[in-house]
């Protein structure tokens, strides 16, 4: 289906020039930044990590290049349909970092592509040039199709409501206790207020996580 893909993650263990193996938890690590990213990916693949958590944090990385890659693919397919030329005749890809892209394109060419590829009878299904709102819509692209994420979304929605209600209740109780002026039987207003803040903060945290099941926007110009 145009604009949709299944993410497959794998790691390559690359030995050094002296034959030493890379650390198991940080394969192919060349710098501290790479080591941290590799370690994070390895951690997320642990069976101890809930599946929904892996799904929620994945867009934090994937959405960084989503708009750029999606629209470049749309431009490529549009040019192929209009000119009849293939990708290898339109783009110059000499860099080592282009190896993966070239390998994928060659594999698609050798195996007939996919159903919506311009080389097939369904060439009219041009790669959709979607808006950012559609591209960053994690609910329609994933959550509504994932049982694990649906269950987690319901849990966070309920937790947000409960914490919000409790926070409001404790804040009101703190105001009442303060108005009582420390009379006998009145609870400490500061303790009640602290409890209200704690529950309110928990509600905000649950709301923030809940939002990730619906949308995760990434704007490159804001990444400073």
Indicate the topology.
Blueprint: H1 32-44, H2 51-57, H3 59-62, H4 66-83, H5 87-90, H6 99-110, H7 132-135, H8 138-141, H9 147-179, H10 189-212
Helix pairs in contact: 9-10
Give a verbal description of the structure.
This protein has 224 residues and is an all-alpha fold. The chain has helices spanning 32-44, 51-57, 59-62, 66-83, 87-90, 99-110, 132-135, 138-141, 147-179, 189-212. Helix 9 runs antiparallel to helix 10 (189-212). The chain is elongated and about 80 Å long. It starts with 31 loop residues before the first helix and ends in a 12-residue tail after the last helix. The model is unreliable at 25-31 and 120-124 (pLDDT under 50).
Task: Assign the structural class, choosing from mainly alpha, mainly beta, alpha/beta, alpha+beta, or little secondary structure.
Answer: mainly alpha
What is the H-and-E element order? HHHHHHHHHH
Low-pLDDT runs: 25-31, 120-124
**Average pLDDT, to the nearest integer?**
77
Cα-to-Cα separation, first versus last residue: 34 Å
Question: Radius of gyration over alpha carbons?
Answer: 25 Å
Tell me, briefly, the overall form.
elongated
């Amino acid at each position: 289906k145009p604009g949709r893909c299944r993410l497959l993650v794998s790691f390559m263990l690359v030995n050094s020039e002296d034959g030493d193996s890379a650390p198991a938890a940080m394969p192919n690590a060349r710098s501290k930044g790479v080591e941290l990213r590799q370690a994070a990916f390895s951690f997320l693949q642990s069976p101890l990590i809930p599946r929904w958590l892996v799904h929620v944090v994945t867009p934090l990385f994937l959405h960084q290049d989503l708009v750029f890659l999606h629209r470049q693919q749309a431009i490529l397919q549009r040019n192929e349909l209009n000119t009849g030329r293939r990708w290898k005749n339109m783009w110059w890809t000499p860099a080592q970092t282009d190896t993966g892209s070239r390998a994928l394109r060659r594999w698609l060419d050798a195996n007939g592509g996919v159903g919506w590829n311009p080389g097939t009878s369904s060439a009219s299904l041009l790669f959709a040039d979607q808006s950012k709102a559609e591209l960053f819509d994690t609910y329609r692209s994933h959550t509504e199709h994932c049982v694990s994420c649906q269950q987690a979304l319901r849990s966070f929605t309920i937790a947000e409501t409960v914490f919000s209600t409790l926070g409001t209740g404790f804040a009101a109780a703190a105001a009442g206790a303060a108005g009582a002026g420390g009379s006998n039987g009145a609870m400490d207003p500061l303790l009640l207020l602290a409890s209200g803040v704690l529950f309110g903060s928990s509600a905000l945290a649950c709301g923030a996580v809940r939002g990730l099941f619906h949308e995760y926007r990434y704007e490159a110009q804001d990444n400073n």
